[in-house]
Structure formats: structure tokens, C-alpha cells
Design goal:
244 residues; six-stranded antiparallel beta barrel; elongated
């Protein structure tokens, strides 16, 4: 990778690999702080409703603690507070915070599973269109009508989630192009990023969902998914949840 070329998203190649070697191609500072650019990254940059990874990067000048990562016009910027010498072309070894990655993956996968469970309820008219998969206040937003008997709906949804988790469906990720995505006959978000690879995530035999986030390999890893609340505003319904 040369300066201004897109960063290779190595976390898409093998999401279970939480460390790897790359090369420093640039560094700088913007309104978020000091950042480092690598030719490829194992850090997930914040986006798609999922927070970024954290961790550290070792280079010849020392160790850099990465507190935030984001995508900027194809580049993945790794933000840090270190005051060490950085040399272009230097080798860099990235180490991802495993505990945080696993938590984010569980929360994100749980959101997809909940969407799948609601989609198979014939008497519930709600279509998932947006997810917020942060540990604080995770929810999935739907277009549709909130069920009249909310407590009964919550109980039913939690039971369906628990059953799916016991059945331990696999979670598969597949890179696709836009033509393949359109041919799947599924909901396609209107704001798909143009500078990222397209990917769909499929849980068991349920409908694929376009997503570039990180996920568990089997839903059994989710443990228990509890519904915190269901709120409606006009034609939007937010179902908040937590994973434990």
C-alpha cells in the first residue's frame, strides 16, 4: 500500500486472527488526535453501528496504545497518544483487545439474531433497518408497528432467541458484489459504504443480512439475550437488548 491507497482490511480475511504484521505508510493528526496508517489492519474501525477495536501496535520506536479507529476515505486511522518516533516503511505488529472484540461481536450477532427472530413472526409487522451495537444501550431499529401486547411480545422474542441459541446455529460471512447482493432479494441499506468490501452475514438458514461488522462463529457463544425495552415513535420501533 502506498499513501492514499485504501487500507487492506485484514480482519475480513480471518476475523479470529487478533494480531498481525503490517507496514507503516503514513502518520498525522486531525481533529480526533494523532493517528497512524498501516498498509493493512486487524483493527475494526467504528462503523455499521459497532464501536472500534482497541489494542496496541508495536513499532521500532516503541509501543502505541490505540484507543480509537475509524475509516476516512478508504484509510483506516489508528488513533493514539504516544510520543515516539515513527518511521515510514517501518514494520508494525498489531494486537487487538480480545475481550472487547469478543463483546462487540456478541452484541452485533445478537442484534442480527433478534432481527431474524422477529422476521419469522408472521403476525408482527416490523422490518429491521438499523442497529446500534454498543455495550451501552444496544438496540435494533425497525420500520413497522409496535406489537400491542408488549410484555407478551418480549416474552415470545426472548423464548425464540433462547431456542435459537440452544440450537447453536452457525454464523457465516461471505464477501459479495453489488449485483449478487441485489439478486438475494433482501433489504439493502441505502447508505452502504462505497469504499468498503460488501459482505453478507447469515445465521443458520435465516435470511442473509448485509453487514461488515464482526461476529461470533456460533450463536451458542451469545449466552443469554434479554430484551430491555420496546419503544415506538411514528413508524419506527426500537427494541433494546443486552447480552450476558
Amino acid at each position: 500500500m502506498k499513501k492514499n491507497e485504501p487500507t487492506h482490511l485484514a480482519y475480513l480475511d480471518n476475523p479470529l486472527n487478533l494480531e498481525g504484521e503490517s507496514v507503516v505508510v503514513d502518520f498525522g493528526e486531525d481533529e480526533k488526535g494523532k493517528y497512524l496508517l498501516l498498509d493493512k489492519t486487524w483493527f475494526y474501525p467504528q462503523g455499521g453501528g459497532q464501536p472500534s477495536d482497541t489494542g496496541c501496535i508495536e513499532i521500532s520506536g516503541g509501543k502505541i496504545d490505540v484507543f480509537f479507529v475509524r475509516f476516512v476515505q478508504g484509510e483506516v486511522r489508528h488513533y493514539h497518544d504516544a510520543s515516539i518516533g515513527i518511521i515510514l516503511g517501518d514494520s508494525a505488529i498489531s494486537y487487538i483487545n480480545k475481550e472487547l472484540r469478543e463483546l462487540h461481536s456478541k452484541i452485533h450477532t445478537a442484534g442480527h439474531l433478534m432481527d431474524n427472530m422477529i422476521a419469522k413472526m408472521p403476525d408482527v409487522q416490523m422490518k429491521g433497518v438499523k442497529g446500534f451495537h454498543f455495550p451501552e444501550g444496544a438496540y435494533v431499529e425497525f420500520i413497522g408497528v409496535k406489537p400491542e401486547d408488549t410484555p407478551k411480545f418480549i416474552e415470545r422474542l426472548e423464548n425464540d432467541l433462547a431456542l435459537a441459541i440452544r440450537e447453536n446455529h452457525s454464523v457465516k460471512e461471505e464477501l459479495v458484489n453489488i449485483e449478487q447482493l441485489r439478486g438475494m432479494g433482501i433489504y439493502i441499506p441505502p447508505n452502504l459504504p462505497e469504499d468498503k468490501p460488501l459482505r453478507v452475514v447469515t445465521i443458520g438458514d435465516f435470511e442473509p443480512i448485509p453487514c461488515g461488522g464482526t461476529h461470533v462463529r456460533f450463536v451458542e457463544e451469545l449466552g443469554t439475550v434479554k430484551i430491555r425495552k420496546v419503544k415506538a415513535k411514528k413508524d419506527r420501533v426500537k427494541v433494546s437488548y443486552q447480552v450476558s
